[in-house]
Amino acid sequence: MSEKILRTIDELESYTDFSVDRNEKDELEDIIFDHPMAVTEYYLNLMDWDDPDDPLVKMTIPSIDEDRGTGLLDPSGEKSNTKIRGLQHKYSQTALLLVTNNCATYCRHCFRKRFVGISFNEIADNMDAIIGYINDHTEITNVLISGGDPLTLPTDKIIDILDRLSVVKHIQFIRIGTKIPVVLPSRISEDAKLTQFLGDYSRNKKQIYINTQFNHPTEITPNAVKAIDKLLDERVLINNQTVLLKGVNDNAALMAKLQQTLTRIGIIPYYIFQCRPVKGVKNIFQVPLLKGNRIVSSARRMLDGPSKRFRFVMSHKEGKIEIIGREGNNLQFRYHQTKDSSLEGKIFSREVDEKSCWLTI
After folding, report:
1. Rounded Cα–Cα distance for residues 250 and 292 (Å)
2. Nearest to residue 144, comparing CAs of 83, 204, 209, 236?
3. Domain with residues 5-351, CATH architecture
4. Helices (DSSP H) in 16-154: which residue ranges?
5. d(CA 310, CA 298)
6. How many CB atoms sit inside 10 A of residue 186's CB?
7. Ramachandran area for residue 105 (φ above 0: left; ψ -120 to 50: alpha; else beta)
8. Mean pLDDT, 10 residues at a time, the chain of 361 residues
C-alpha cells in the first residue's frame, strides 16, 4: 500500500486542523502507545474538521476518554475458543483464522484492541497445524479470515493462504473480514492481480465473501463504489456488518439510509452489531440495548426487501444473540449461533433497564 498512513499526533496536527494543548497531547500519546493510531490519507480526507461531532473523526481519532472507561479486553471469550495459535473454533461449522495484527486504519471501537497493532501473540504462525486441524474437523464448512485486516497483507501472502485452504474438501466457502473497501478502496481497485485471483478462486475453487464494515453513509464514496464494483464483477459477494455506535449512527433515519445505500450498490446488509463492552470503548460508543432496539426497529420500518435483511445481534461469549424486540418491560432475544448447540434457536427474555448495554447470562 503506497498511500500515506498517519500514525502520530504530530502528523495529524501538521496534516489537518486537529490541535490539542501539551497536557492533552501527552495523554493522547500514552493512549496511542496502548492502542495505536493509524488512519489512511484517503479516509482522513473524508472528515469534516469544522464539525466537532464528525462521525468519522470519532471512529478513528483517539480521545482522552479512552483512558477513563471500564470494560473487558476479551468480551466475546475468544481466548477460550483458540485451538491453535491464530485459529479459533467457537461455532461448529466455522473456523476463524487470524492472519495479521495490522489494519490500514485502526478503529477506536475495535473489539480486538488487546492485540491489534500491538502484539503478534494471537496471529497464526503454523499454517500446517491449522490446515491439519481443519482437515480433521469435517464439521467445518467455512473459514473466516480475519485479524487485523487480511487485505493489508501482500497479495502473494493472501494468495498463499487461500491456496492452502482450497485443498480442504469440506470447506464450502471462505469469508474475508476487511475494512479496506471503506478506508483504502484503492487497495482493491488498483490491484488487478488480487481481484482477478479472488474472481478465479470464487469461480473455480471456493466462493469468496467479503465481510466489510460501513458504519456511516459518508463512507460510501465513488472510490468505495469503484472497489465494490471490481469485487462484484469478479463474482466476489459482499456482506456488511454495521456496528451501532453512539454519536456515529445511533439515529434511525441515518441507519436506514446507510442500509438502503448499501443495498443499492450491491452490498448485502448482514448484521447490525451491538457494540461490545471493550475496555476503552464501552463508555464512549455503547448504545443502551433498549435505545438500540428502538433505533433498529424504526430503521427497519423505513426499509423494504433486501435492505432489511440484517439481524441486530450481540457477539456474546455464549454466541451470537439476536435482539428480536421488546415486550412490555422485557427485551426478547434468540440464540442465533451458539457454542452450545443445544441452545441454537432458543428464544428468551430479560428485563432490561434504560442504561443496560450488554447481557449478563
Report:
1. 7
2. 209
3. Alpha-Beta Barrel (3.20)
4. 22-34, 41-44, 55-60, 127-136
5. 13
6. 16
7. beta
8. 87 91 93 95 96 97 87 94 98 98 98 95 97 98 98 98 98 98 98 98 98 98 98 98 98 98 98 96 96 98 96 96 93 94 94 94 75
Q: Look at residues 111, 104, 93 and name the one whose alpha carbon lies nearest to residue 174.
A: 93
Instruction: Report how far residue 245's alpha carbon sits from residue 216's, in angstroms, rounded to the nearest whole number.
Output: 10
Q: Identify residue 282 by its one-letter amino acid code.
A: K
342: exposed, middle or buried (Cβ count in 10 Å: 0-12, 13-18, 19+):
exposed
**Cell numbers of 46, please?**
473524508
Identify the CA nearest to 45 among candidates 285, 262, 224.
224
What burial letters (b/e) apply to 6-17, b meaning 16+ CB within 10 Å?
A: beebebbeeebe
Alpha helices by DSSP H, listed for 234-288, are 252-264, 282-285
Residue 135 burial by CB count (10 A; 0-12/13-18/19+): exposed, middle or buried? middle
* Angle in degrees, CA 57, 4, 56, rounded to 5: 10
